[in-house]
């Protein structure tokens, strides 16, 4: 499959991110207007100021909560949490501003209450729709990312199963790469997926043929992991460390 299909959205990430921000803050103002007008209340200067203030506050809090980071590989509930936090903080500070300026009595509590509840609902539904659309096109092979896993071990095998069981993430595994210093693939359940060692992976990362790299090595190999991170630092690949939760839980079980 061609690179243009794999990178369908990637070249336009900054534009799409801008559109998301614009849609969110525009939706906030539109929903406020709908809430006010639907209850037969006059749309006046105070509501305009409240709407503009909420747009600014939400923008600031959404940036601090990293609302617009990539959703790829992030569970739905976790991806919506920054939205809820950003909007909750926005509502809180709006109420504080209202009390400080002694203008809360000039607003309709019913209209404002409906607005505060409708915004996160609409923005969540909007995100779920986009997420479903992206999942659909990824299942057809578009907008995918090439993934390499470092670690010919059970942790690496778990990562493979996780990716293969969640095709909606749009990740295509190019292979497992063993750590030539500490690993032997003999007896490894997914030995057929081992396509080379770390040096082979580094060469692929340098030429840009790998988008995501997951280092799945045991916790006892911190020095080796650190050296890998240093070597991959000058490549365009995004590198993640897969935590060994089994060992972590074992160490903290007492």
Task: Report what the structure shows.
There is one protein chain. Helix 2 runs antiparallel to helix 3 (45-64), helix 3 crosses helix 4 (76-101) and helix 4 runs antiparallel to helix 5. Residues 1-5 and 246-254 have low confidence and may be disordered. Helix content is 57%, strand content 10%. The protein has helices at 3-6, 13-38, 45-64, 76-101, 109-139, 154-164, 198-206, 222-232, 245-251; strands at residues 145-150, 171-178, 194-197, 212-215, 238-241. It starts with a helix and ends with a helix. The chain is built from nine helices and five strands. It has a five-stranded parallel β-sheet with strand order 3-2-1-4-5, with helices on both faces. The protein folds into two domains: 3-139, no CATH class; 145-251, 3-Layer(aba) Sandwich (Rossmann fold), CATH 3.40.50. The protein has 254 residues and is an alpha/beta fold.
Please render the helix and strand layout as text.
Blueprint: H1 3-6, H2 13-38, H3 45-64, H4 76-101, H5 109-139, E1 145-150, H6 154-164, E2 171-178, E3 194-197, H7 198-206, E4 212-215, H8 222-232, E5 238-241, H9 245-251
Parallel strand pairs: 1-2, 1-4, 2-3, 4-5
